[in-house]
């Protein structure tokens, strides 16, 4: 019997090719969108799962009371992991890991800058990486060792058989390759191209072993299964307090053990509480996937019931020949399931073809989990649910026709038959209007932040990595760069202009509150800072050559310090008395969505991390960069020349919002397209029902415009109703989303007015294209039987 239903369903699909094509197209697009989103959601939730200790790895973080706010930071003190493991049996392994650095690897004539981590001996006991050569456990304990990823080993040596090969590190020491691992998966939080062990005999490390005040590294624990994590966090906090005796701001906060399962999706903290993160986007797009699939199912219902009169006689004849309603239900649901299967097959082909492009768009390596049993369970569930949901209403509706009325030709569905379909189409447009409104608000917020006054000029500002050679010959290098005429100003800093690497709570001055928790970010720099980055000096001056004890603060720092006449004020910091010589305008360096951070610039002319170059206004970029490279190599031939434009680097801070904006545009556009198919079905149903009425009106002299208006207005009010319902929901949702940003745009009436006009135009176009065909038809054909 089931085979018969499938055969009949297939014959019906083939017989009505246009209808079948439109129906399958709607379901295919809906399923493809849903599948793409679910693939992305799966990959977001699969981060770091390559670690065998996934469920017991914790990132040790700290809540600190700074400037009246609780800030959650990753930087911890060097002796903590060793002391914690010795004190608490709940900790199986503990490791200290640097925040990451760029290291110059040299082998023969090859010189490569690679991202590296400096780690303690238990790093590979905690984290899982696939070794290709060597023993990771012994290699990480060797101070003269370096561990390379497969791609780094091939880039340096041409192959991975490199055990005991010498590698020069930063041109000042030689290390030996003791192990090679497979490249770190892109869905891993810790990213690196090489591992360098801490050297326990180094004077800096020996000093750090007892340094509990300064924090400059990350700490990770692997605990035993079943450990009471909150209790362990409290114990670690007490351990820190015992060793610091109130000297460190950490003692005024609390320890947070952040599980690996939350690193990717729950990375945001507010006032010391984990408030979410990317998980909000995962939830958002999961709902979008569900909504789009529902919209596609609604389309199926509308398009199927739109053909009710054409299939009425079929139902009437089947019933007179003895078919029960149950059999008709099975028949129509079989057609729906067959359509669902065909649509899924096409959607799967589309998804497989689009995953590489989608991966490039997201800058992630998306993987379709074919080997996961849950994937096939979801596939079967999607096909079955889609087929049943989409086909249930048409099946009950069509199988309920009265055969006597149908065969007498007196069957007429009536206006009430359109009501369920109108409700469904209205729901479709509500969802689409919300999606489009959200897309516009996201774009508006992104542009609002991008147009923000950053307090400095990013145009033609380039940064290049400093080296010991450039630091040693900085004055000569600077002079040669200026002599090219293609560079207007040169300065150097300890960190890039787009980030603040270091902060301090140790600033003291006359009149400061005794228990001040003031924390200020600081950057080491030299003369011409303000001139190079083109920021305003509000009071005092910029640094001059020889300003060894001078500091410059920004406006926000002076405000927090409460200084009325800052220039000339003496402060004590890092064991030295220093003088404030200037006040700069606030610069947006870290998050573009928040107010400017307090900042202190400290004069330093011995070392740096970055060279900042302001290219001449009218300089040709290609020629200017070539001249900079030639000059750079003149003084630093051992290091590769690598540069970044400040504006491009700063734009990396918008990646999440840009990604969400792009995805929103794509899926909102597809949702509208599917909605138009649904509206097409509803219009077709109405025209089918009113065909004779249209013919009579034409005979009586109705014009094309009058007929189009007559047939359009009953659908356009549905769009208007959807607009009225959707706008409050969209405003509430996007207003809540904007609350995540301190610096945010407002949601104006114009946004929704624009969305309404666009939706109305699309709906009017869809209705008109369908209605015009009926309005232009020959009334003689429709009235022939009269």
Automatic annotation (TrEMBL):
<dbReference type="InterPro" id="IPR025857">
    <property type="entry name" value="MacB_PCD"/>
</dbReference>
<dbReference type="GO" id="GO:0022857">
    <property type="term" value="F:transmembrane transporter activity"/>
</dbReference>
<keyword id="KW-0472">Membrane</keyword>
<dbReference type="GO" id="GO:0005886">
    <property type="term" value="C:plasma membrane"/>
</dbReference>
<feature type="transmembrane region" description="Helical">
    <location>
        <begin position="328"/>
        <end position="355"/>
    </location>
</feature>
<feature type="transmembrane region" description="Helical">
    <location>
        <begin position="281"/>
        <end position="303"/>
    </location>
</feature>
<dbReference type="Pfam" id="PF12704">
    <property type="entry name" value="MacB_PCD"/>
</dbReference>
<feature type="domain" description="MacB-like periplasmic core">
    <location>
        <begin position="20"/>
        <end position="236"/>
    </location>
</feature>
<feature type="transmembrane region" description="Helical">
    <location>
        <begin position="747"/>
        <end position="767"/>
    </location>
</feature>
<dbReference type="InterPro" id="IPR003838">
    <property type="entry name" value="ABC3_permease_C"/>
</dbReference>
<feature type="transmembrane region" description="Helical">
    <location>
        <begin position="663"/>
        <end position="684"/>
    </location>
</feature>
<dbReference type="Pfam" id="PF02687">
    <property type="entry name" value="FtsX"/>
</dbReference>
<feature type="domain" description="ABC3 transporter permease C-terminal">
    <location>
        <begin position="666"/>
        <end position="775"/>
    </location>
</feature>
<feature type="transmembrane region" description="Helical">
    <location>
        <begin position="715"/>
        <end position="735"/>
    </location>
</feature>
<feature type="domain" description="ABC3 transporter permease C-terminal">
    <location>
        <begin position="288"/>
        <end position="403"/>
    </location>
</feature>
<keyword id="KW-1003">Cell membrane</keyword>
<feature type="domain" description="MacB-like periplasmic core">
    <location>
        <begin position="433"/>
        <end position="630"/>
    </location>
</feature>
<feature type="transmembrane region" description="Helical">
    <location>
        <begin position="375"/>
        <end position="398"/>
    </location>
</feature>
<keyword id="KW-1133">Transmembrane helix</keyword>
<keyword id="KW-0812">Transmembrane</keyword>
<feature type="transmembrane region" description="Helical">
    <location>
        <begin position="21"/>
        <end position="42"/>
    </location>
</feature>
<protein>
    <submittedName>
        <fullName>ABC-type antimicrobial peptide transport system, permease component</fullName>
    </submittedName>
</protein>
<feature type="transmembrane region" description="Helical">
    <location>
        <begin position="423"/>
        <end position="443"/>
    </location>
</feature>
<dbReference type="InterPro" id="IPR050250">
    <property type="entry name" value="Macrolide_Exporter_MacB"/>
</dbReference>
């Amino acid at each position: 019997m089931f085979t018969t239903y499938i055969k009949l369903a297939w014959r019906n699909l083939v017989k009505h090719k246009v209808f079948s094509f439109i129906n399958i197209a709607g379901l295919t697009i809906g399923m493809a969108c849903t599948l793409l989103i679910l693939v992305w959601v799966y990959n977001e939730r699969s981060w770091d799962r390559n670690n065998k200790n996934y469920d017991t790895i914790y990132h040790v973080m700290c809540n600190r009371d700074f400037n009246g706010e609780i800030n959650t930071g990753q930087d911890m003190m060097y002796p903590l992991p060793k002391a914690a493991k010795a004190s608490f049996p709940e900790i199986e392994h503990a490791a200290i890991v640097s925040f990451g650095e760029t290291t110059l690897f040299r082998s023969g004539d090859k010189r490569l800058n690679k991202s590296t981590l400096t780690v303690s001996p238990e790093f590979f006991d905690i984290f899982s990486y696939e070794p290709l050569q060597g023993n990771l456990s012994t290699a990480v304990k060797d101070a003269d060792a370096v561990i390379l990823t497969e791609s780094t080993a091939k880039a340096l040596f041409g192959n991975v058989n490199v055990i005991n090969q010498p590698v020069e590190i930063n041109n000042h020491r030689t290390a030996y390759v003791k192990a090679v691992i497979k490249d770190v998966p892109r869905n891993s939080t810790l990213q690196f191209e090489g591992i360098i062990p801490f050297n326990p005999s180094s004077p800096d490390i020996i000093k750090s072993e007892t340094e509990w005040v300064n924090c400059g590294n990350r700490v990770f624990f692997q605990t035993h299964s079943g450990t009471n994590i909150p209790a362990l966090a409290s114990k670690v906090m007490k351990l820190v307090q015992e060793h610091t005796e109130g000297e460190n701001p950490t003692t005024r906060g609390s320890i947070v053990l952040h599980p690996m399962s939350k690193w990717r999706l729950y990375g945001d903290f507010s006032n010391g509480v984990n408030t979410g993160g990317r998980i909000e986007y995962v939830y958002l797009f999961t709902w979008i996937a569900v909504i789009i699939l529902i919209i596609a199912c609604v389309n199926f219902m509308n398009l199927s019931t739109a053909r009710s009169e054409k299939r009425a006689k079929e139902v009437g004849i089947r019933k007179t020949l003895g078919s029960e309603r149950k059999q008709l239900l099975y028949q129509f649901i079989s057609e729906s399931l067959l359509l669902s299967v065909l649509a899924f097959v096409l959607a799967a082909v589309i998804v497989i073809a689009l995953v590489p492009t989608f991966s490039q768009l997201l800058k992630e390596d998306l993987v379709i989990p074919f080997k996961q049993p849950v994937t096939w369970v979801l596939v079967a569930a999607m096909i079955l649910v889609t087929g049943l949901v989409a086909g249930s209403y048409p099946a009950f509706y069509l199988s309920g026709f009265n055969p006597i009325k149908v065969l007498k030709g007196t069957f007429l569905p009536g206006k009430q038959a359109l009501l369920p379909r109108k409700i469904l189409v209205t729901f479709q447009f509500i969802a689409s209007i919300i999606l489009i409104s959200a897309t516009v608000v996201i774009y508006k917020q992104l542009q609002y932040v991008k147009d923000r006054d950053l307090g400095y000029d990013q145009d033609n500002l380039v940064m290049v990595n400093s080296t010991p050679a450039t630091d040693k010959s900085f004055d000569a290098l600077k002079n040669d760069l200026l002599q090219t005429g293609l560079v207007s100003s040169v300065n150097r800093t300890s960190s890039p202009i787009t980030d603040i690497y270091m902060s301090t709570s140790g600033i003291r001055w006359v009149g400061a509150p005794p228990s001040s928790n003031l924390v200020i970010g600081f950057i080491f720099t030299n003369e011409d800072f303000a001139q190079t980055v083109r920021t305003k000096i509000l009071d005092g001056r910029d640094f001059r050559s020889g300003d060894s004890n001078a500091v410059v603060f920004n406006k926000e720092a002076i405000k927090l310090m409460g200084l009325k006449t800052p220039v000339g004020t003496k402060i004590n910091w890092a064991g030295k008395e220093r003088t404030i010589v200037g006040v700069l305008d606030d610069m947006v360096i870290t998050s573009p969505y928040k107010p400017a951070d307090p900042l202190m610039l400290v004069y330093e002319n011995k070392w740096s991390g970055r060279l900042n170059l302001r290219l001449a206004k009218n300089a040709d970029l290609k020629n200017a960069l070539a001249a900079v490279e030639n000059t750079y190599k003149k003084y630093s031939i051992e290091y590769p020349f690598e540069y970044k434009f400040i504006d491009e680097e700063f734009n990396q801070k918008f990646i999440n919002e840009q990604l969400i904006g792009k995805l929103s545009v794509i899926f909102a556009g597809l949702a509208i397209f599917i909605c138009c198919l649904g509206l097409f079905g509803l219009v077709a149903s109405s025209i089918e029902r009113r065909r004779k009425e249209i013919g009579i009106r034409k005979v009586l002299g109705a014009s094309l415009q009058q007929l189009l208006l007559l047939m359009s207005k009953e659908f356009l009010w549905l769009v208007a109703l959807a607009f009225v319902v959707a706008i409050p929901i969209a405003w509430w949702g996007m207003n809540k989303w904007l609350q995540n940003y301190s610096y945010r745009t407002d949601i104006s009436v114009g946004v929704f007015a624009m969305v309404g006009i666009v939706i109305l135009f699309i709906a009017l176009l869809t209705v008109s294209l369908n209605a015009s065909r009926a309005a232009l038809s020959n009334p003689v054909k429709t009235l022939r039987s009269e």
